[in-house]
Structure formats: C-alpha cells, structure tokens
Amino acid sequence: MELAYIDVPEEFAGAVIQKLTSRKGELQGMSPGNGGYTRLEFSIPARGLIGYRGEFMTDTKGNGIMNTIFDGYGPYKGDLSYRKTGSLIAYESGESITYGLFSAQERGALFIGPGVKVYAGMVVGQNPKAEDIEINVCKTKKLTNTRSSSADEALKLTPPRDMSLEQCLDFIDTDELLEVTPRSLRIRKRILDPTLRKRASFKKN
After folding, report:
1. Which residues of 158-175 are buried (b: 16+ CB within 10 A; e: fewer)?
2. N or C: which end of the chain has fewer CB within 10 A?
3. Residue 108 phi/psi, 5° resolution?
4. What would the pLDDT profile of 72-107 be if each residue is shown by its tens digit?
5. pLDDT grade, residue 204 (50/70/90)?
6. φ, ψ for residue 54 (rounded to 5)?
7. Using CA atoms, how far apart are residues 195 and 185, in angstroms rounded to an integer?
C-alpha cells in the first residue's frame, strides 16, 4: 500500500477523489491548504497509481502536487477497472507505410510512425470506441497510369503517441501483453492469430 499526499486547487479536488477512488484508493483525510489549495491524503494500492500521474497532471491542469510513500502490505482490494476504449491491431506483418498509417489514423490515435516493423496481432493504436479494430498499416497505394488531382499532395500524419513503460502498463487490457526490449516497447494481443482471437472472445462471452 502507498500513502499519497496530494495538494490540488480546490476546484480540482473532486476529480482527483473520483479517479483515485476508482483505482481502489481510500480517502484518509482532507484539509484546506494555502492559496486555495486542498490537501488530500489517500491510502491506495501501488498498482492503482500505475499510469495515474499523466491523468493527474491533466485533471489539475499541471497545478497539482503529489507525493507518495510506501506504507506496508495490505489485503487485496479487488480488480481495477480497465479502460473503456479498444485497440487498433495490425492485420499483417511487415513495415508500416505512410499511406497505410494515413488511412488508419482516422480510426484513432496511433502509437507508431512510418518505417516501423510490425507483426499481425501487434497493437499499433487506440480506438476511442470500446471495440478492437484490425487495420493494415502496411498498405501501399496502388499505382495507376492516371494521376489523380491529389497525387502531388503530401499525406500528413498526426505525430504518434509516445508511450512510456508506465503508460503502457496502464493501457494494456486483460487480453494484451507488453513486450519490453532494450530499444522499444510493444503492446500485443495474447492471441496473435485473428481467427483464434475471435473464437476465444466468443467463448468468453
């Protein structure tokens, strides 16, 4: 268990309490601070803090201060709630292409840019909806003898989301794994084969 001491502007205290409570945190104390700040004291499992610091900075608009200290071992508090969004999954193995990424970015936020080696079953982005979508980031544009009016227009890609180790651990769902190598972090489905993955989801439901 961790003790978290949090100083936030009064108007953001409710959002912080809601988020930490959903992560199995228990509010131990709440007192007014200086300059319109509120001091919150939480007891929370260490796993409940994984990936939270980014959310904390967003919820407090960068005005919050959080310090944590180990408080000892405690009883299991139950499963944490997982994300309500889906994943964008690479459909085939190969190297990501700008054309394929340009089509894929309409489905959600991407974790990779062009020139990245991917494999079938690898998670390459996040779908804002609660379903997984298979996409082909290796797709190339078919060459024709006729040039379209937009042939000379450069495809503009949104910069990929650079995920830290903590953010990856917070992101993965129960059917996903995180691969850690000296050079990269890769999120993948436990079952890489799309057919077997669908069968497993049907059995689960």
Report:
1. eebeebeeeebbbbbeee
2. C
3. 165, -165
4. 998 888 887 777 889 999 999 999 999 999 989 999
5. low
6. -65, -45
7. 25
Look at residues 28, 51, 50 and name the one whose alpha carbon lies nearest to residue 40: 28
Query: Distance (Å, rounded) from C-alpha 120 to C-alpha 89?
Result: 8
* Three-state DSSP state, 171: helix
Tokens representing residue 205 in the block: 């439901």
Residue carrying structure tokens 């024709």: 144
| Whole-angstrom distance, CA of residue 183 vs CA of residue 165 | 12
What is the SS3 assignment for 164?
A: coil
What helix, strand, coil percent values describe the chain, rounded to 5?
A: 25, 30, 45
Task: Quickly list H helices, 46-204.
Answer: 52-59, 98-104, 165-171, 194-204
**Partner residues linked to 90 by β-bridges:** 135
> What pLDDT, in 10s, does the model give residues 163-191?
889 889 889 988 999 999 998 999 999 99
* Amino acid (one-letter) located at 109: A
Render pLDDT for 10-68 as a digit per residue (tens, 0 to 9). Answer: 999 999 999 999 999 999 999 987 888 999 999 999 989 988 888 899 899 999 999 99
